[in-house]
Design goal:
Chain A is of the alpha/beta class. Chain A is built from 11 helices and 12 strands. Chain B has a single domain, classed as Rossmann fold (3-Layer(aba) Sandwich). Classes of the chains: A alpha/beta, B alpha/beta.
C-alpha cells in the first residue's frame, strides 16, 4: 500500500535518526568542537546508524548561529557516498526560502548517488532570520510554502512541468533533471505539533512527519486524526499515506543515568535556540510512558514508542540524539542501545505477519 | 537577586514617578540586590515581528534580555482606554512563550480615577498568568489625586509601595526555596 513511499509496514515500524545540524558547546566541558568536526560527526553517525540496523538518517537545514548544516544537501550527498543501505532524508529542508526546482535537482542527484535511498522532508522554517537571509517576505509566509510544496510535488510526479505561480518564474514544458532512480521519490511534509499544518498535509495527500518534542503524547493524537480525516475528505486513502513522528531522544542503561545524561544538553540547547531553558520539573516527569519526550532506560523507551504506536499508528519514528552538544561517545552509546535492544523489540511488536 | 523595575509607558509622568519611588524603596530596603529601572520612554523599541527576543538589535534586544535575566519584575503601568498601554503589551509580545516561568512579577498602576481599579485584574494579570509568572497578588493602585507637582503626596501610597517591594522580594525567596527543594530530589 505504501510502495510509492518505499515503506513496507509488514516489516514493522521504521526507526530513524535525525540531526537539526546544531552546533552548540558541550555544557559539561564548556567548549565547542569545530564546524568541520561537527560535520564529520553527521557523516560518522550515519555510518554507525547503518551498522546498527537503523532504517533512516536525516539532517536538517538551518541558517543561523548555533548551526552548521546550512548546506544540508551537500552533507546528505557525503552521507550517500559513505553509506550503502540506510535511507537518507532531510529534517527538514526549508522549502519556503529555496527554489523547488533546485531542491528537486539536488535530491534527485542524491537519490542517484545513493542508489535510490533519498527522500525530501519539506518544511516552512520557523525562524525569521532564514527568510531575511534569502530575501523572502514574511508576509507571504503561508502562501509561499503552499505554492512551493505543490510545485515540488508536481515536479516529482511529472518529468516535464508547465507551471505558473506567484513566487517563482513560470515553467513552460521544463524538463526537471536528473530523475530519481525510480522516476520519483518520497516527499514528506514537515509538521509542527498543532493541527493546522497537519490539516494542510492531509488535504494535499502527502506523507506527514510530525514533531512531538515533549508533553503528553496524547496531545498529538489530535493532529494525527485531523490529518487522516482531511486526507479522506479530499479523496486520498489514509491507509496509503505514511506518518512519521520525531522526538528528542536519550537512552541509557538506567533511568537515572538517562536523566542525568540528557538534561544538561537539552537545557543548554533550549537556552541557545529558544532563549529559555527546559524546566526541571517537566523534565522529571518525562520518563513516564505517556510523555512524548524520549528519555529513559531502554525498557522505558520501548514502552513509550509502543504506546505512541498504539496512539498514532505511525510507520516511522525518528530520534534526535545529538541536540545540545552531546559528546560523540554518548551518541555512539545511544546508537548501540537503539540497535541492540530497541529496534529488535519494536520491529517484533509492530511487524504484521 | 536581579530586580527589574519596568515603567511601561512612553508618555506622562505619574507611572515614572511611582517607579522611581519604587526603586528608591528597593535600594533602601535591599541594598545588596541588583536593581535596575527600565523606563520605556528612554528607549526605542521595535514592534514584535515573531523573531526570538535575542535576535533583535539595539534597545529592543537590550530591554528584552534584561527582563529575561531578572528574578523579579515590578511592572508600572498607566491605564489607557481601559487597558495597559500598547508599549507595555509590545514588551510581552516580544518575549517567548512561558517567559515569566520561575520569575516573580508584581504591579503598580497609576490612573486618573478609581474607576480603573480592576483593570490590572482584568487586563494585566491574565497575560502574566499565561506567561507563567508567580504573581504577587496585591498591587499598588495610585490615583491622580495622590500626586502633587511630580511627587507622591499620599503617605498611604508610600506605605503600600514599601509592602509591595517587601512582598516581591520575599516571594522570590519563597519560590527559590521551593525550586531548590525540588531540584535536590531530581538528581540531574
Amino acid at each position: 500500500m505504501m510502495n510509492n513511499y518505499r515503506i513496507n509496514p509488514s516489516e514493522g515500524m521504521e526507526f530513524g535518526l535525525y540531526s537539526l545540524g546544531d552546533h552548540i558547546m558541550n555544557p559539561l566541558t564548556g567548549s565547542r568542537i569545530s564546524a568541520q568536526e561537527r560535520i564529520n560527526e553527521f557523516i560518522e553517525m550515519s555510518q554507525l546508524a547503518e551498522q546498527a540496523g537503523i532504517d533512516v538518517f536525516s539532517v536538517g537545514e538551518s541558517h543561523q548561529t548555533h548551526f552548521t548544516s546550512q548546506a544540508h544537501t551537500v552533507i546528505l550527498a557525503a552521507i550517500a557516498q559513505a553509506t550503502k543501505k540506510i535511507k537518507i532524508t532531510s529534517s527538514s529542508t526549508v522549502l519556503s526560502v529555496l527554489d523547488p526546482v533546485r531542491v528537486y535537482e539536488d535530491f534527485a542527484t542524491i537519490d542517484l548517488i545513493s542508489n535510490g535511498r533519498a527522500e525530501i522532508v519539506a518544511g516552512r522554517g520557523s525562524r525569521v532570520g532564514t527568510h531575511q537571509l534569502f530575501g523572502v517576505d514574511l508576509q507571504d509566509y503561508e502562501e509561499i510554502y503552499e505554492e512551493k510544496l505543490e510545485l515540488l510535488k508536481q515536479i516529482n510526479e511529472n518529468e516535464e512541468v508547465t507551471w505558473n505561480g506567484h513566487f517563482r518564474p513560470p515553467l513552460d514544458r521544463a524538463k526537471i533533471l536528473p530523475r530519481p532512480l525510480h522516476g520519483s521519490m518520497p516527499i514528506w511534509r514537515a509538521v509542527g505539533g498543532p493541527p493546522a499544518s497537519a490539516i494542510k498535509a492531509g488535504s494535499m495527500g502527502i506523507p506527514m512527519m510530525l514533531t512531538t518534542l515533549g508533553g503528553p503524547a496524547m496531545n498529538f493524537r489530535t493532529s494525527i486524526l485531523a490529518y487522516r480525516r482531511m486526507a479522506e475528505q479530499n479523496g486520498f486513502d489514509p491507509d496509503s499515506l505514511p506518518i512519521a513522528t520525531t522526538s528528542l531522544f536519550y537512552v541509557a542503561d538506567t533511568e537515572k543515568e538517562a536523566l542525568r545524561g540528557m538534561y544538561p544538553h537539552l537545557n543548554t540547547g533550549f537556552e541557545a535556540i529558544r532563549g529559555t531553558g527546559y524546566p526541571k520539573q517537566q523534565f522529571a516527569q518525562a520518563t513516564d510512558y505517556r510523555d512524548a519526550l524520549m528519555v529513559g532506560s531502554k525498557e522505558q523507551i520501548i514502552e513509550k514508542i509502543l504506546y505512541q504506536h498504539e496512539l498514532f499508528g505511525m510507520q516511522r519514528f525518528i530520534a534526535q540524539i545529538d541536540f545540545g552538544g552531546v559528546p560523540f561517545d554518548k551518541i555512539m552509546k545511544n546508537i548501540e542501545l537503539i540497535g541492540n535492544d530497541i529496534i529488535p523489540a519494536i520491529k517484533k511488536h509492530t511487524a504484521t505477519k | 537577586m536581579k530586580i527589574v523595575v519596568l515603567s511601561g509607558s512612553i508618555v506622562g509622568s505619574k507611572t515614572k514617578i511611582a517607579m522611581e519611588k519604587t526603586v528608591d524603596i528597593l535600594k533602601q530596603s535591599f541594598p545588596s540586590h541588583d536593581i535596575q529601572l527600565l523606563d520605556l520612554a528612554e528607549y526605542t523599541i521595535e514592534f514584535s515581528d515573531g523573531r526570538n527576543y535575542f535576535e533583535y538589535e539595539g534597545d529592543t534586544k537590550y530591554i528584552t534580555e534584561r527582563v529575561m535575566a531578572a528574578d523579579a519584575i515590578i511592572i508600572g503601568t498607566p491605564v489607557f482606554q481601559a487597558s495597559i498601554p500598547a508599549t507595555l503589551k509590545n514588551i510581552f509580545d516580544l518575549l517567548p512563550v512561558n517567559a515569566f516561568r520561575d520569575k516573580v512579577v508584581s504591579s503598580v498602576v497609576t490612573a486618573g480615577t478609581q474607576k480603573h481599579y480592576l483593570i490590572v485584574e482584568q487586563q494585566l494579570k491574565p497575560i502574566l498568568s499565561y506567561m507563567k509568572a508567580h504573581i504577587v497578588p496585591t498591587f499598588v493602585f495610585i490615583e491622580e489625586k495622590d500626586f502633587l507637582r511630580k511627587e507622591i503626596v499620599n503617605d498611604d501610597v508610600l506605605f503600600r509601595l514599601e509592602r509591595l517591594v517587601e512582598d516581591t522580594v520575599l516571594t522570590v525567596e519563597a519560590f527559590e526555596a521551593i525550586r531548590k527543594r525540588k531540584d535536590e530530589e531530581y538528581d540531574f
